[in-house]
Amino acid sequence: MNPSLMMSIAAVERDTGLSKDTLRIWERRYGFPNPARDRQGERCYPVEQVERLRLIKRLLDVGHRPGRIVQLPTDDLQTLADRSADAQGLGRMAPASRSRLDTAPTWAPGAIVSMPAHADETWVGPCLALIDQHDHHGLHRHLRHAAASLGLLSFVTAVATPLLALVGDGWLRGRFQIAQEHWVSQLVQQVLQGGLSTLPEPLPQQAPRVLLTTLPGEPHALGMLTVEVALAVWQAQPINLGAQTPLWDLVHACAAHRADVVSLGFSSAAPATLIQDLLPELRAKLPASVAVWVGGRHPLLTRRPVPGVTVLGDLSQLQDTLLRWRQTRSAPGRPVPSHESD
């Protein structure tokens, strides 16, 4: 066996995100992975098994259970990944070009059967080509140009949000690697933060005051930033606490900031216990006068709604909910700004 095509267990852990203990447990319980041994008797894994482990990790991240997928062959795993991506409502993506990285793959509308709703293909399509090419600086320039041309809120709705959804979908289908997803998210975040810095500071009387965060165990915070942009443009008072705020700290922050709303994001990979257990607990600990708005792609948000919690599917629903809040829940005597868009 060619040792150059083998990876140590430490390398597999770094590459896949699966711990060494998990790999050993699966080996005993399911018979996969099935590593060889090097001259020192240490486990080493063929690259074919590592590719299969990457696919398994993608499926675990969107809610599949190890006992149902670890023993599946690679073709079945890829079919399941495609179905999982389809279930999230995105169009099928053609495989990425296998040309050399210094040759940009040509993007064409036919590369994706259907763009997400509200996506501006003239901006999003070239973004995908730049990601395929691993052109970090080119994508950064393109995103900044899009934000300057469209305005910040239109950039969020027509470029940033659909692009991130497509990249996540492409990761699930195997088109993009996790490293690509990470640097694309980082670039979008930089552009949004730069745009936020140009917006005027909210006035003290503007309402509602909205705390933005995620619960412990949910590290994905980019969705909060898009909501922060929208709320700032619509003349609310967003207060971004960052990701993974502990429950009691969030309750205390709500009181300290005299918040009207707590807004939480849940990615499709968030642990189910956050929605089933922590979200109801938070709702019970907050005053009834404080609204709780949640968004994201986790299926449990709509499958098992929590009483007293408003689920927002997209920014248009956020805008409608904000308008209703101002019409029905604005405190007496507090000026309510006009409902504006970008």
From TrEMBL:
<feature type="domain" description="B12-binding">
    <location>
        <begin position="207"/>
        <end position="332"/>
    </location>
</feature>
<dbReference type="GO" id="GO:0003677">
    <property type="term" value="F:DNA binding"/>
</dbReference>
<dbReference type="Pfam" id="PF13411">
    <property type="entry name" value="MerR_1"/>
</dbReference>
<feature type="domain" description="HTH merR-type">
    <location>
        <begin position="6"/>
        <end position="63"/>
    </location>
</feature>
<dbReference type="InterPro" id="IPR047057">
    <property type="entry name" value="MerR_fam"/>
</dbReference>
<dbReference type="InterPro" id="IPR009061">
    <property type="entry name" value="DNA-bd_dom_put_sf"/>
</dbReference>
<keyword id="KW-0804">Transcription</keyword>
<dbReference type="GO" id="GO:0003700">
    <property type="term" value="F:DNA-binding transcription factor activity"/>
</dbReference>
<dbReference type="InterPro" id="IPR006158">
    <property type="entry name" value="Cobalamin-bd"/>
</dbReference>
<keyword id="KW-0678">Repressor</keyword>
<keyword id="KW-0238">DNA-binding</keyword>
<dbReference type="InterPro" id="IPR036594">
    <property type="entry name" value="Meth_synthase_dom"/>
</dbReference>
<dbReference type="InterPro" id="IPR036724">
    <property type="entry name" value="Cobalamin-bd_sf"/>
</dbReference>
<keyword id="KW-0805">Transcription regulation</keyword>
<dbReference type="GO" id="GO:0031419">
    <property type="term" value="F:cobalamin binding"/>
</dbReference>
<protein>
    <submittedName>
        <fullName>Cobalamin-binding protein</fullName>
    </submittedName>
</protein>
<dbReference type="GO" id="GO:0046872">
    <property type="term" value="F:metal ion binding"/>
</dbReference>
<dbReference type="InterPro" id="IPR000551">
    <property type="entry name" value="MerR-type_HTH_dom"/>
</dbReference>
